[in-house]
Amino acid sequence: VKLHHSGRYHCSARGSSWLSPWNESAPVTVTVHGVPLSGVSLSAQPPGGQVALDDCLVLSCAVPAGTGPVSFSWHQGGSGAPPGTGLRLELRHVGDNDSGQYQCWASNGDSVAESPPLNVTVLIEWDLRAGV
Length: 132
What we know:
The chain is mainly beta. The protein has strands at residues 7-9, 12-14, 22-24, 28-30, 41-45, 50-52, 57-62, 71-76, 84-85, 88-91, 100-107, 112-114, 118-123. A hairpin with a 7-residue loop joins strand 2 and strand 3.
């Protein structure tokens, strides 16, 4: 059953003879409801969300339960504009400002579900020989 199957239905029947008149049942209204999204999870590559400065970080969102077309948005801490949309967020050449908590939000038009936050840490290597 799909959401577009909602509507008014009735049954029509007639007796065993083709001359018998058609009889129609009273109409009934059928409403198909979507299943709310749940269980949204977030994974990172490299695992744990620890990435070296200037490397690539890939975050992936998964939604195990829910119906309808799903759209995604990514959120970093309290920042304004989302850093991306889609099932995956790829950050190439990460910098200091990419550290922080990330969340994936999934929406099917009827419900919104959020992943638990994932803490991303950008690791900066110090070259002790150079005194930097």
